[in-house]
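In this section we walk through a basic example: taking a raw amino acid sequence and producing a predicted 3D structure, encoded as discrete structure tokens. The instruction is simple. Fold the sequence below.
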Amino acid sequence: MAQENQNGDSKAAAAVAFTAVKPQLFVEAPKATDAVQFYKAAFGAEEVNRTMHPKRKADQELPLMLSAEVKIGSYSLLVSDLAGDSDAPAKTVGTRCMICLETDDVEAAVEKAVAAGATNQCATAEGETACCGGRVAKLNDPYGFVWLICSPANKPVDVAA
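The resulting token sequence is shown next.
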């Protein structure tokens, strides 16, 4: 299907297929290593790879993590140190988004995360009061991020296209 672009050319746009979405979490330097350890302990994350800042290592400064890829379930996210001289697009630690993890055992997941250092924000909600239709708990991690621990919704909802 041809699409007209801004200069009036009607050539067909090349199809682009994305293979993954990987949110990147920036934590106050030098705490990214600690954050990765927390995600392992709290959520059973598996570290896939890690890239350290080569200049800082060579200069014998405090080594900073450019990124560590961790998997939680079948999804990946990146964890990075945010230093004052960083060229990262995000210049603040923490975020205004929530990360939702789905599990059949909300209580056990909350207990494990709290034991690892998370703070439980409120009592577990259920049914119509839960944002996802099942059971949901809200946690703060020690690095400024909010996590929802949710069970699958009890009944599917028809969504109009």
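Looking at the output, two observations stand out. The mean pLDDT is 80. The CA atoms of residues 68 and 153 lie 31 Å apart. In the next section we compare this with other chains.
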